[in-house]
Structure prediction request, 789 residues.
Amino acid sequence: MRDPEVQQREDIARFAAALIERLRARRPAVHCVTNAVAQNFTANVLLAAGCVPSMTLSPDEIGDFVAHSNALLVNLGTFDRERRKATERAVETARRDHIPWVLDPVFVDRAAHRADFAEILLTRGPKALRLNRAEFGALAGGEPTKSALMAYAHEHDIVVGLSGETDWIADDTRVATVANGHTLMAKVTAMGCAVSALVAACLAVEADAWRATAAALTIMGVAGEVAGAKAAGPGSFAVAIIDVLHNLDAPALAAHARVTLHE
Amino acid sequence: MRDPEVQQREDIARFAAALIERLRARRPAVHCVTNAVAQNFTANVLLAAGCVPSMTLSPDEIGDFVAHSNALLVNLGTFDRERRKATERAVETARRDHIPWVLDPVFVDRAAHRADFAEILLTRGPKALRLNRAEFGALAGGEPTKSALMAYAHEHDIVVGLSGETDWIADDTRVATVANGHTLMAKVTAMGCAVSALVAACLAVEADAWRATAAALTIMGVAGEVAGAKAAGPGSFAVAIIDVLHNLDAPALAAHARVTLHE
Amino acid sequence: MRDPEVQQREDIARFAAALIERLRARRPAVHCVTNAVAQNFTANVLLAAGCVPSMTLSPDEIGDFVAHSNALLVNLGTFDRERRKATERAVETARRDHIPWVLDPVFVDRAAHRADFAEILLTRGPKALRLNRAEFGALAGGEPTKSALMAYAHEHDIVVGLSGETDWIADDTRVATVANGHTLMAKVTAMGCAVSALVAACLAVEADAWRATAAALTIMGVAGEVAGAKAAGPGSFAVAIIDVLHNLDAPALAAHARVTLHE
Prediction:
C-alpha cells in the first residue's frame, strides 16, 4: 500500500498535468483587466499556456469582450479611474454570464484607496484571490497561517492562492502547498500578475476553483523552477519561463511538482 | 529563358531586400497609435529595422509628432476614448500633410463598436489595411479569397495585407502571396501589430503601397522563419526575431523569400 | 606617486561599485511616472539593480505611493493629461517629504507643449536632469559643451546627466565623462528611460546628486558594454543587460568603468 500523502501529491500533480492539456485543447479566451506594466508579459504567458488573451479596458468594448471570454482577471496594479470603470463593467458582465473571475489585489498594502476597492470587489463573487503575504496582511489583518487562510476563504466564499517561497492554496476545507518556484520569480516584474492570469485560465476549464488554483500555481511554480535552472539572471529567466511553459508536458509537470495536501 | 514566375518572385524578393536597406539609410520616423500590449515590442521591431518610433497618444502632442513623421500606424487594439481622440487628430494631420498611414483593425471580430470605427477610418484614406482572416471576415463579410481581397481593395482604394499561414497582399490589380513565417509568430503577442508598424515604415520609403506592403510582410515572414529555426519556444522566439531583423541583409532576405505573384 | 587622473577615475569607479552594493542592501522603493513603452523594461531594470519599483499614475493613489518611496522618476514620454496630473501630485508629495527626484524630458525636441511643461518642472526642484543631446538643445538652446552643461546646471541648481557615445555628468563645479556603453543601447526602446530610473535609485541612497548621477550612468554603461559583448542583436541585448545588471559586482564594475574627471 502506498503512503496516502504521496498518493495525494501525485493526484494534484497529475491533475495539474491534465489541466495544462485541457488548456491546450480548449484554448480558453481570458480577458484581463491588468496593469500597464504587466499587459505584455501576461499576454505572452497566456499564449504560451495555450489560451487566447484580450486586454481592452475601454468601457465601450469591455462588455463585449468579457461576454465572449471564458474567464476574467481583475488585477489592481496601476489602478486608475479608467481601470475602475472597466472593472465594474467587466465584473457585472461576468456575474450576469456566470464567467469565473480572479482578483489580484496588487499592492493593496501600499494605498488605502486600493484596499477599499478590493474589499468591494470581494463582495462581487470572485472565485479566487491570488496575492502575496503583504497583500494578505493588508486585507485580512494578520499573518497567513493555515487557519487564517481557511477562515478568510470561508468568510469570503473564495479560494485563496498565496504566493511566496512556498505557495498556499486554501478554501474553507482544503489546504495544499506547492514547494516549486525559483528566487528569480521575485526579480521579474509582473510575475505574480501572470500567475493570476493563469489562475483565471484554469478556472475557465475546471469548475472546482480550489483544484484550478492549485493547478495554476503548480504549473507556474514548475515552469519557474525549470526556467531558473537555465537562466543567467532575471532577463533570460523571463524569456525561459515562457519557453518552458509553452513546452511543458504532463510527464515533466508530474515529475517536478512538489505539492502537499494538509488535512 | 527563365520561368517568368520565378523571375517575378525574385523581383519581389529583391525589392524587399532593397527596401530594408532603404529603411536603414533613411531612418524614417514612424508614429504609432497602438495598443498598450504592443507598444514596447513594436518600438523594438521598428528600431531593429532602422526606424525611429514614437508612440504618444496625447491629443496635445500627437499633431506635432505626426507632422514630423514619415508614416503613421493606427492600430485599434485596447481601443479607448483616448486612442479614438488621438487617432482622429493623427489621421487629420496625416491627410493634411500627405503622410501615408496603415490601419490595423485588431479584434474587430470581437467588438461591434470597434468595427464601426474601423469602417469610418477606411473612408479617411489609409494606404494599407493589415489584418487576419477573422478580422477580414468581420469587415468584408466573407472569406478572403483572391477575388474577395481584390474587390475589397478596389472598393476602398487600399492595399490589403492579410496575415496567415500564407500571407496575401492585394490591390485592385495585383495579388502576391508570401509563404514565409513560422508557427511561433502566432504565439507571441503583438506580432501582427508589429508587422503593421513595419508596413507603415515601408510606406514611408516607397510610394507604391502594394510593393511596400508586400515587402514588409516578406521581411517579417523571413525574419520569423529564420528566428523560428533558432528558438526554443515563444519567449526566445520574440527575442530572436528582433535580433534577426536587425541583422537581416539583402542576400539573406532574397535567399529565404518565398513570394509568388498571382496574375 | 600615482597619476591623479587615474586616481580620480578609480575613485568614481569604486564609488559606483559601492553604490550598487548600497542599492542591494537598502532596496530603495522608486516610484516611476514613466511612459507606456518604458514601464515594463524600467521595472525590470530597477528589480535587477535591487530596487522596488512602482508605477501607478492614478491621482487617487500616487500621493500614497510617492510618500512611501525613496525616490521619484518623472519621465515625459507618451505624456498625456493623466501623466501631467499624476506628475503634479507626485512632485508636490516629493517636495513636501524631501524625496529626491529626476526629470527625463523625453522628446522635448519633438513637441513644444512638452518642452513648456519641462520648463515648469525644472522650477520644482528636481535633483537631476537625464537627457540626450537633442533634448538638451531643445531646453538649453545650444550644443552641450562642458561650459554649457555647467552653466545650465548652475542656472537650474541641478545635476545634468547627458547620455551619448560618451556620457557627461555636470553640476556647477564638477564634470565627469563616462566612456562605457554600447551602440546597441540606442537600438532598444526605453534604454534612456531606464537609465533615468537608475539615477533616481542612486539618489535614494546617496545625498551628493552629482556622484549619484555619475554612478548610475557608470553602472548602466558598464552593464551595456558587458551585455553588448554577448548579444547577437538588440533583442538578446535587452535580455542580457538585465542579467548583467543583476549579476554586476563591485570588482567587475571597477574593472570596466572608464570614468574621467574634468577639472
